[in-house]
Amino acid sequence: xxVPVELRPLGVGEKLDAAFSLYxxxxxxxxxxxxxxxxxxxxxxxxxxxxxxxxxxTLEFNGGAVVMLLFLTVLSFVANTLATGSATKxxxxxxxxxxxxxxxxxQYAVGRLWPLVxxxxxxxxxxxxxxxxxxxxGVILWVSWSIWVxxxxxxxxxxxxxxxxxxxxxxxxxxxxxxxxxxxYLIVWLITAIVGGLLTGLLVGGADAGQVTVAGTVIGIAxxxxxxxxxxxxxxxxxxxxxxxxxxFDVDLLASQISGxxxxxxxxxxxxxxxxxxxxxxxxxxxxxxxxx
Length: 293
Fold this sequence. Notes:
This protein is mainly α.
């Protein structure tokens, strides 16, 4: 069993450090998830890349190219959503002290694919229009729903239930959460800009503009495959950190779920009577039983 991340409220630097540690420790698992899910879809996209939407000679609209483009877009969307869910499961397992497995993580995410896809669509549309027309409400929605994927995976929630769960966990700390994600995406942007620029300069020195564009696209996709799992790790760390902050019993509860040791129950004052022999309810599990997946 892996030693879990310390279950206490973490500072910004501690959360980033935990995210980097989880990313490094599970690098092989995360790359396997990406290799199995995303890379085949990227290759399929390259092979089936449609013709131009408009014929440059006749200026006629190419309906077949539109259908193929929509088909490839849907496939890419589903693949990326599944990869995010699978990586979230793997990182969450490690965070709770278990040993993640790439195949088990993918199988679990497949079982949660519908709420993941539906949630991604609702999240994207709502936040997009919020940003386009109102800006600030869009940012608020993005921050409020920022950890909904972890709620779907860890707590087996529906998409809408996960949005509400994320909002309750983030409520009262939206500014710190917003600043945290700004730092996360700034780190990703810096890594992408520096490494991408170096690789492009080394690989396509002296090439024409077309070759530089193609190489830049390929390098960008490759870097995204490596940086996206880090964003997932940072999100999972934030999710558990918010649970520790918001739910007073979380530290002892999560620790008991990891070690299998029951949480000591506080004695009931006499003025409140007894439980009449009733068994106390079982604490919620971090993941649903296998027969309910």
